[in-house]
Amino acid sequence: MTRVIHTGDTHVGYAQYHSPVRRQDFLDAFAAVIDDAIDGEVDAVVHAGDLFHDRRPELDDLMGTISVLRRLDDAGIPFLAVVGNHESTRGGQWLDLFERLGLATRLDDEPTVVGDTSFYGLDHVPVSRRDDLDYAFAEHDAEYAALVAHGLFEPFGYADWDTEEVLAESDVAFDAMLLGDNHTPDSAEVAGTWVTYPGSTERASASEREGRGYNLVTFDADAAGGDDRVEIRRRALDTRPFVFVEADLREGEGAARVREAVRQHDLDDAVVLVDVTGEGDPVTPAAIEEFATDQGALIARVTDRREVETDAEVDVSFADPEDAVRERVEEMGLSEAALDVEEAVRADTIPDTNVRETVKRRIEERVDDLDDLGAFDPGEAGGAAGGDDAGDREAEETESEADDDSESGGADDEVADGEATGDGTGDETTDDETDGQVSMEDYL
């Protein structure tokens, strides 16, 4: 029997709503999963991608993640992982660094055996490159086989990957597919194989209303009755509360009615998201947000969804304006070089006085690298050049109105992120086939 924790989309480093407290929440949620793994003495932790939210995580996020992984390593529990679309770099992956430190195993087309189960990996692969995949995995002699992958697979929401095709063309008969990218937890049986998402470990968008958690997956060759089985159980995480307030205003009602709706909830240290609808009087979002924080909320955001009289009818949002920027960037289909510039201009970690020099240096690095000129080719509009995990796509329906998130419902209307550089099946890629982002060595 093999028991593993299946998690993913931890998005460590995400300063949601520009809040350092929320940034710490994402690391704390990942740490809670690892604590449960140690306490439960599982055989391995399997991470299905998007460990980090950004492809250039800050030092505090890196050191915090290393500290968490060291605890897991000290307990003798392996950390098996693949690369998601939020983590991609040109010269290497942070996962490779953790592997060199002896803290992780990057899964690929060769089996990594834990107990009686062989684990394989398939990194995030853009839709435009999937026709080249041959799903050639090396043979194994374990009782079970599981494929860990990052992408939007059928039959779940926003799917763009044919699960039956993957299973039919793979050299290995998989008993389970342990997936990441879709922030909504779910499981289904496809062609006799269990396919499951654990969901994100923290709410990365306003659309992620259900509680967060992970999967406990058991591969049991000695199940009752003598039948082999794969058992998937959902485990909850105690994460920061989100309070969703609906204020439907009738004619003549206004801010007082909204405050009353807010007052009916326990707001202590919560993220409070207020939706205003109906035909009542105008409401000043800033005043309601201040009221909510005075009542104990950590963060408050008010979205007025009522239509206003203009030349065209619009849905007014007073949530984080970063959402509108992210949505527009994804629609533009910018090249990787342009995304690098866009990131430098908007990054809150780069002082204004250093922006010009940072942009100049990044462009010069790409121009000097003759193998990287493909980075100046336009991307596919709508997110192909950036991160568009299911969380991200799901968030596009709500985040531009209520949240600061991709990925990937973030998911997430996350910042446009790079694509994974490899397909996880062991095929070598040249620099002009990668996403053209800077290497870890350049970062450091």
Features of the shown structure:
alpha/beta, 3 domains, 28% helix, six-stranded mixed sheet, globular, 444 residues, Purple Acid Phosphatase, chain A, domain 2, disordered C terminus
Walkthrough of the structure:
Helix content is 28%, strand content 19%. It has 444 residues and is α/β, with parallel strands linked by helices. The protein has 3 domains: 2-236, Purple Acid Phosphatase, chain A, domain 2 (4-Layer Sandwich); 242-304; 321-370, no CATH class. It has a 6-stranded mixed beta sheet with strand order 4-3-2-1-11-12. Strands 5-6-7-8-10-9 form a 6-stranded mixed beta sheet, covered by helices on one side. It has a 3-stranded parallel beta sheet with strand order 13-14-15, with helices on one face. The longest helix has 21 residues, at 20-40. The protein is globular, with a radius of gyration of 22 Å. The model is unreliable at 309-319, 382-388 and 393-444 (pLDDT under 50).
Entry summary:
The protein has helices at residues 20-40, 59-74, 94-100, 163-169, 255-263, 285-294, 322-332, 336-346, 352-368, 390-396, 399-402, 440-443; strands at residues 2-7, 44-47, 79-81, 105-106, 112-114, 117-122, 144-150, 176-180, 186-190, 193-197, 213-220, 229-236, 242-249, 271-278, 299-304. It is of the alpha/beta class and 444 residues long.
Q: Rg, please?
A: 22 Å
CATH topology of the largest domain, anyone?
Purple Acid Phosphatase, chain A, domain 2
The dominant shape is globular
DSSP, total strands: 15
Helix fraction bin:
25-40%
Order of helices and strands, N to C?
Answer: EHEHEHEEEEHEEEEEEHEHEHHHHHH
Largest sheet: 6 strands, mixed
Enzyme class: hydrolase
Cofactor: Mn(2+)
Organism: Halorubrum salipaludis
EC number: 3.1.-.-
